[in-house]
Amino acid sequence: MLRDAMEAQFVEESDGLTFWLARPQDYDEVMAISQDIYQGNDYLPHRYHTWMTECERVVIIGRRNGRLVALDSALLVDGGQTVVLEGLRVCPSERGRGVAGVIQRVTDCYIKQVYPSVTTKRLTRRDNPGPEKLSKFIFLACRAILSLFGEAERFKGFVSGLKTKLESTEKSDGPSSNNNQKLFVLKDIHQLKAILLDPDLSLRLQLPGGAIIQDWQPLKPMESNLEILERRNLTWMVDCFDDKPMFMSFHTPPYPVPFNGGSLRFNIDMFGTDVFIAKKALIAHLEQVIEEIHGSVVVHVYMPQTFWEAMRQFCEGDEGVKQYMDYWEQLFLEKEIA
Ligand SMILES: CC(C)(COP(=O)(O)OP(=O)(O)OC[C@H]1O[C@@H](n2cnc3c(N)ncnc32)[C@H](O)[C@@H]1OP(=O)(O)O)[C@@H](O)C(=O)NCCC(=O)NCCS
């Protein structure tokens, strides 16, 4: 039987709210509580229906007197040991009263029932809640984000400007010290697997908290997560030195978000220690999508904090594609599930 046609599955009643598994037909109500979330960069309008059928994902909604007021979601990862929490939201009129805490406890409890092997929950968030709230978590890492915005047709000029800048730094630095290095698009799934499962990867690329963070979703580089990464249809770039990856990045296919009346959101996640390669990778990722983007485009580049200022300077000065948010961060946190 189609889930659509199914009765809503009741989860629990708590604090005057009833909790249910979300269904495809709850979409409009979920969107109604999602106005202006992440300043228009919300991924949920685009991902909701995929979430409904994604295996080992739980999506829970909370209702007060029948009205949908909150949503939380968890994806089972890391071979069943961890859940990644995503999508948390509470309708504006219910905020500041602890509803987010209630739905998170309900989600934890449900997860424990369905997946007893889970010991840990992980989440990424943009706002720093301060030391008191943060002390409830294990702090794993912090990444910097550079955000750009422009009309699709202005990206060709932007990229050619970046190339000119890169060439001039190459010249002024003399013959490149990176002769053995070459950034390439990694398409071979076996090669990708070998790279991701290499036990030295985390140290060499300084992976945040030992994880790959894909568009806010942290995953340990382990075999059982490869299938999840494959589902995301990513474009991978790697730069190797003596066959060892020294830099890795990927982009998620651009997807629509509400920003500025409707835009494409383009996320690039970067891992490594060499900002020069990061600049090359930025150009390469943009070139990969330049023919397919249209309308307004928001680009978010997630990177080690040490890259940020150099990347900002690298991107400044274009008339069409501009930085549109100041420095901001992605916090990566963990907590035991009781
Ligand atoms: C962030 C948001 C969900 C908070 O909802 P709320 O019900 O007003 O939350 P409260 O301030 O009453 O806090 C209740 C609990 O949720 C926790 N919480 C608040 N924001 C959180 C967040 N972003 N991630 C995880 N937990 C959060 C609080 O620490 C508190 O925990 P406690 O009960 O263990 O003390 C709500 O403001 C919202 O929907 N904002 C827009 C969407 C958004 O930014 N979501 C965050 C995704 S990272």
Automatic annotation (TrEMBL):
<feature type="domain" description="N-acetyltransferase">
    <location>
        <begin position="17"/>
        <end position="167"/>
    </location>
</feature>
<dbReference type="InterPro" id="IPR056483">
    <property type="entry name" value="Hisat_C"/>
</dbReference>
<dbReference type="GO" id="GO:0016747">
    <property type="term" value="F:acyltransferase activity, transferring groups other than amino-acyl groups"/>
</dbReference>
<dbReference type="InterPro" id="IPR016181">
    <property type="entry name" value="Acyl_CoA_acyltransferase"/>
</dbReference>
<dbReference type="InterPro" id="IPR000182">
    <property type="entry name" value="GNAT_dom"/>
</dbReference>
<protein>
    <recommendedName>
        <fullName>N-acetyltransferase domain-containing protein</fullName>
    </recommendedName>
</protein>
<dbReference type="Pfam" id="PF24066">
    <property type="entry name" value="Hisat_C"/>
</dbReference>
